[in-house]
Design a protein that fits this description.
Elements (H helix, E strand, L loop, with lengths): L10 H18 L2 H14 L5 H13 L6 H17 L2 H19 L11 H11 L5 H17 L13 H15 L5 H11 L7 H20 L4 H4 L2 H15 L8 H17 L1
Helix pairs in contact: 1-2, 1-5, 1-10, 2-5, 3-4, 4-7, 6-7, 9-13, 10-12, 10-13
Length: 272
């Protein structure tokens, strides 16, 4: 018998709900609601909260890609062991608190948001569920292992850590190819990218939730500029940039993603 996925007791799902609601507030320019959501994220998913620890365990599986089968199997095994160390009574209490706050300060409808990786979130939830029978759990684990070793990219919310050497090399290559100096917005993006591993990518996502709409608005308005609208080639190129910005929510936040946004930030600086 298939076990039901109780999504409101899935810490990773709750976090994704908040991130998508945050994105809505940016688009709707609802500053009051944005502050409420940011406060909820910082209170419940940062530091040593049980929710943050529980989400870390989910992430150890969900964020792993392109590894050997043995490594994937070991990660799932170790994650299950770590899950058992969580104080489930305290976790239930924290989940109840955040659920109540979402219902009260945001909307019960928030839990109906479309979450692109919902199936994977549900699968990991079932893997951690002690009531799931052995055969079903093994099948679920095998499903996740196949994703971890075969899929290069899926929509997810969190980044791989990069060290200082990688960062310096990345910035150097960008400078050599595109500019002699990074502008303020580019430096801020890179800074958020560097720190993304330590805080689950929270600060980076918050930054992008404001930066992407800003860039999109400026690029769209540029279509009205005389030097662009009178040049069909420039119009087509501008529309391609807009398309890239409008599809960012479906992309993995990796080096290529950051590289593209850096280039667009440089373009927008020239348009300003």
């Amino acid at each position: 018998m298939k076990m039901k996925h109780n999504k409101k007791r899935n810490s990773a799902f709750i976090f994704e709900v908040l991130i998508r609601e945050l994105a809505k507030t940016i688009m709707e320019k609802n500053d009051n609601k944005k502050k409420i959501i940011m406060k909820l994220i910082k209170e419940h998913f940062r530091g040593n909260t049980v929710l943050a620890k529980d989400m870390d365990i989910y992430k150890s599986i969900l964020d792993t890609k392109n590894v050997e089968r043995h490594t994937a199997e070991r990660l799932i095994f170790e994650s299950r062991m770590q899950k058992k160390t969580i104080n489930h009574r305290e976790l239930f209490k924290e989940q109840t608190a955040i659920i109540d706050k979402i219902n009260k300060f945001i909307s019960p409808e928030a839990f109906s948001n479309f979450i692109p990786n919902y199936r994977d979130l549900a699968t990991v939830f079932q893997i951690f569920n002690p009531k799931v029978k052995t055969k079903q759990r093994v099948l679920l684990e095998n499903h996740m292992i196949n994703i971890m070793i075969t899929e290069e990219e899926r929509e997810k919310e969190f980044l791989k850590p990069i060290d200082n050497l990688t960062y310096k090399t990345f910035v150097q290559k960008f400078n050599e190819k595109y500019s002699n100096k990074l502008i303020k917005e580019q430096k801020e993006l890179l800074s958020k990218y560097i720190g993304s591993f330590a805080d689950h990518g929270i600060e980076l996502k918050m930054f992008l939730n404001e930066e992407i709409p800003r860039l999109t608005n400026i690029v769209k308005n540029s279509l009205n500029l005389k030097e662009i609208k009178n040049d069909q080639d420039m119009v087509e190129k501008t529309k391609k940039v807009i398309k890239i910005l409008e599809t960012t929510s479906r992309r993995v936040l990796d080096n290529k993603f950051v590289h593209d946004i850096l280039k667009i930030q440089g373009l927008v600086k020239e348009l300003a």
